[in-house]
Amino acid sequence: MHRCPIQCIVPPYIVERMAHCEDPRIREQALVALTTGSAVRAVRAFAQQMPTMLAVPSPVGRRNRLIYDARGRDTLPGRLVRAEGQKKTADAAVNEAYDHSGSTFDFFQDLFGRNSLDDAGMSLISSVHVGESDGTGYQPMTNAFWDGGQMAYGDGDGAVFGRFTQSLDVVAHELTHGVQAFMSNLVYRGQSGAINEHFADVFGVLVRQWREGTTAADARWLVGAEVLIAAPTRRAIRDMEHPGEAFRDDPVLGSDPQPNHMKRIYTGPADAGGVHINSGIPNRVFVLVAQSLGGPAWEVAGRIWYDAMRQLSRTSQFADLARITAQIAGDEYGSGVRKAVRAAWKKVGL
Ligand SMILES: [Zn+2]
User: Fold this and answer.
1) pTM score of the predicted model
2) Which of 21, 61, 91, 234 is deepest in the core (most CB within 10 A)?
């Protein structure tokens, strides 16, 4: 489940910028104007806890990670437990959120010159130990999400899912939703939503491959392997190389519903029209392209997909992604790479 972006008239990134404004009157007004939504609460709590930091925008080109502990509740962000530059805590979830969000920031900055999610030095806010209310009390959340302004991570149910911060590709996946919000901002429904999920998976695994120095041939292309508690019936949340094979006949999860070809595309109403289901189709394409080009996947395939992420519109469909990636490939890398991209799309029926 992903919570929907907050439906405020002023989007959270503008509010955050306003709340970081050097002019105290604008800052005050922005904070007073805030009404509902967790990103809003994040900024408000941030303002209450760190008023002196708010007076100074994040230094350009500098990471500004803020890790909060929701202490098992669903009120975000919670209590600030580790700010940028502060030393490790005794809490593994806090340190994982800090380290993995740092790796993600570094990846986008080093490869694409991008200064944080909004390319304007936005603070990276994460809440760990987020809980869910069942009406009578709270239980650990079995999920991670980007809510339009920050990341939130649960500790899992302890039976099938463990702590969500354990997986670098899950953290990078969530942050890539944040990056996309400042780019094509693809509508989170149907094929456009599946492309949104696809980009989050692509850059989720690329951050890990870049961090670990893995080539396309050596990569395992799994999303969230560490988050699942090991069992013979499950390997990961998604398998980009083999969509539909991440888990099978699992007593809790069932079988992976992802298709690997347009012939099997899901057209029902569940999952916002299959955003996490049909993403398997472009996921497979990306892996095929990266493997056929060889070497590190972030160098050519990753750059083509990053440019595509910038060029798509809110309502783009798979055919648009196929067309744009082939065009970028040809323009930037020549006909050989364009052929490889076209061949990969053909394999999935596009
Ligand atoms: Zn996602």
Assistant:
1) 0.84
2) 234
